[in-house]
């Protein structure tokens, strides 16, 4: 048989089919690691072993160093340690003369908490398969994408196709809170001509995403026993005013002229009141209440600008209240300090992705603007490395009974394999 592109691709697709059951099992294994913040080491060790033994990659581990990263404009302030929480990088280095372009495949293995698990019909760490769906926390967001990118390269290796350019496989931490895992690996020097991130966007390409910050508002009350409640100030009741102010600010953000990438979106800038903590006894007036929220804002706006504006907005709202005027809330920021971006889909990365997508999906590639953040921002904003997200179909991300469509995982594996052949070129 002649070594035409079609034949090579068919051979690689056959390998994807041949290893499909193994791919599903691998995804089930990944789904069983409860890899929430602080618990990423076991899954990273498992993946690193696989990349080393099965794909024969050179594997490195990078531990984010806040001191080294803190002057970077994309750095977000954590409130936790990076000890024993490595980022994994596997390197496929092409030998001889390089013809194609190099690429990074990157996925995050950190997942958000499944609590309250009583709202789930399936074990969040059980990787249950029902029909064509697999259920579990992080299965769609984004362990399925991680598996697809690994098995795309594996299929190429199993088909004995030698790529003409380098491929880096990164599994990162901290995507759900800071992005410092992704940032640390790039700063360590792991760069390429483009970066693909298989977030579960339903086989669409990502061309824009919003910026995101986290805010913490500490509201003070005047604690007492309930019998003296008329002389006390209840911090929970006071905190309502700050919740109202946050929702007011959200309205204001969405009433401004929209960024063109989000012109069609009815409500691109979302504020989520994610946590409220206060009180510890029904008969005690709580003297403190802490609210934590996530704030989305348009691309092109510096996160610091939004932080300053939001702080001023909240303090102004506090001014209207007698108690809060005298006892202003403490406003601080941690976690996400993420700028948004919008990129032109009229460039090589999208052209190659479109071609690969067309072969597998037999329809044109559509692109989308995302009202959340992804690690693609680092490459696009700070390193001039074009980056997009393209991944399988799933639902209930961060919600109960999160699932991924397994058929779409197989398709994305093939699309990524086709992408690699075209982007990196191969030795005939
Ligand atoms: Zn994700």
UniProtKB/TrEMBL annotation:
NCBIfam families: DapE-ArgE, PRK06837.1. Belongs to the peptidase M20A family. Transmembrane segments: none annotated. SUPFAM superfamilies: Bacterial exopeptidase dimerisation domain, Zn-dependent exopeptidases. Pfam families: M20_dimer, Peptidase_M20. It comes from Bacillus thermotolerans (Quasibacillus thermotolerans). This is Acetylornithine deacetylase. Keywords: Cobalt, Hydrolase, Metal-binding, Zinc. Residues 208-321 form the Peptidase M20 dimerisation domain.
């Amino acid at each position: 048989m002649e070594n035409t592109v079609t034949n090579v691709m068919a051979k690689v697709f056959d390998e994807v089919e041949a290893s499909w059951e193994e791919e599903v099992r691998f995804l089930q294994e990944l789904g069983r690691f409860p890899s929430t913040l602080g618990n990423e080491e076991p899954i990273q060790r498992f993946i690193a072993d696989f990349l080393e033994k099965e794909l024969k990659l050179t594997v490195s581990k990078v531990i984010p160093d806040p001191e080294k990263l803190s002057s970077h404009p994309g750095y977000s302030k954590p409130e936790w340690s990076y000890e024993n929480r490595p980022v994994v990088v596997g390197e496929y280095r092409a030998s001889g003369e390089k013809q194609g372009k190099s690429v990074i495949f990157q996925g995050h293995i950190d997942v958000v908490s499944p609590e309250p698990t009583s709202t789930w019909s399936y074990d969040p760490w059980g990787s249950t398969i029902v029909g064509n769906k697999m259920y579990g926390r992080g299965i769609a967001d984004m362990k399925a994408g991680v598996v697809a990118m690994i098995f795309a390269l594996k299929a190429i290796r199993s088909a004995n196709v030698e790529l003409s350019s380098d491929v880096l496989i990164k599994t990162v931490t901290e995507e759900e809170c800071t992005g410092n895992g992704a940032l640390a690996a790039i700063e360590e020097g792991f760069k390429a001509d483009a970066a693909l991130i298989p977030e579960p966007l339903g086989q669409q390409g990502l061309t824009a995403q919003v910026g995101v910050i986290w805010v913490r508002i500490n509201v003070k009350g005047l604690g007492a026993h309930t019998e003296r409640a008329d002389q006390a100030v209840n911090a929970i009741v006071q905190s309502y005013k700050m919740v109202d102010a946050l929702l007011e600010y959200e309205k204001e953000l969405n009433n401004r002229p929209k960024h063109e990438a989000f012109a069609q979106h009815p409500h691109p800038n979302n504020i989520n009141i994610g946590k409220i903590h206060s009180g510890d006894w029904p008969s005690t007036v709580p003297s403190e209440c802490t609210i934590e929220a996530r704030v989305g804002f348009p691309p092109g706006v510096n996160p610091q600008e939004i932080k300053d504006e939001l702080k001023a907005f909240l303090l102004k709202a506090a001014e209207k209240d007698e108690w809060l005027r005298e006892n202003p809330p403490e406003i601080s920021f941690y976690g996400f300090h993420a700028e948004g971006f919008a990129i032109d889909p009229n460039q090589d990365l999208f052209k190659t992705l479109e071609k690969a997508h067309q072969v597998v999906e037999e329809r044109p590639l559509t692109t989308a603007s995302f009202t959340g953040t992804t690690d693609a921002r680092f490459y696009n904003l700070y390193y001039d490395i074009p980056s997009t997200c393209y991944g399988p179909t799933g639902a209930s991300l961060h919600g109960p009974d999160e699932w991924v469509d397994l058929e779409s995982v197989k398709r994305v594996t093939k699309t990524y394999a086709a992408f690699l052949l075209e982007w990196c070129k191969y030795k005939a």
